[in-house]
Amino acid sequence: MITIQAKLIKEYASSYYLDCEGDKVWFPRSQVEFNKEKEELTAPEWLLRQKFPNENF
């Protein structure tokens, strides 16, 4: 699990729409933890690699 900075744009029952340093991305709630107060997203490495293929985690 990796934690990155993210800002909440929209929240739905099954997903979050987040701004991750300028990249706006959907994440399934079942796969991640999002802390609204700290603006931190914790997600599995495989999911972050899928969403951000040009980043090195």
Describe the structure.
The chain is mainly beta. Helix content is about 10%, strand content about 50%. It contains 1 helix and 6 strands, in the order E-E-E-E-E-E-H. The protein has one helix at about 45-50, and strands at about 1-5, 5-10, 15-20, 25-30, 35, 40-45. The chain has a 3-stranded antiparallel beta sheet with strand order 1-6-5. The radius of gyration is 10 Å and the shape is globular. The model has no long low-confidence stretch (mean pLDDT about 95).
Summarize the structure.
The protein contains 1 helix and 6 strands, in the order ββββββα. With 57 residues, it is mainly beta.
Keywords:
three-stranded antiparallel β-sheet, 49% strand, 6 strands, globular, single chain, 1 helix, mainly beta, 57 residues
Counting DSSP H or I runs of 4 or more residues, the number of helices is: 1
Strand content: over 45%
Most strands sheet: 3 strands, antiparallel
Q: Are there runs of 5+ residues with pLDDT below 50, and where?
A: none
Overall pLDDT confidence: 95
CA-atom Rg in angstroms: 10 Å
Distance between the termini: 10 Å
| Helical fraction | 10-25%
Number of beta-strand segments: 6
- The neighbouring-strand order within the major sheet is 1-6-5
Query: What's the quaternary structure here?
Result: single chain
Order of helices and strands: EEEEEEH
Question: Helix/strand-derived class?
Answer: mainly beta
Shape: globular
Fold blueprint:
Layout: E1 2-5, E2 7-11, E3 15-20, E4 23-28, E5 33-35, E6 40-43, H1 45-51
Antiparallel strand pairs: 1-6, 2-3, 3-4, 5-6
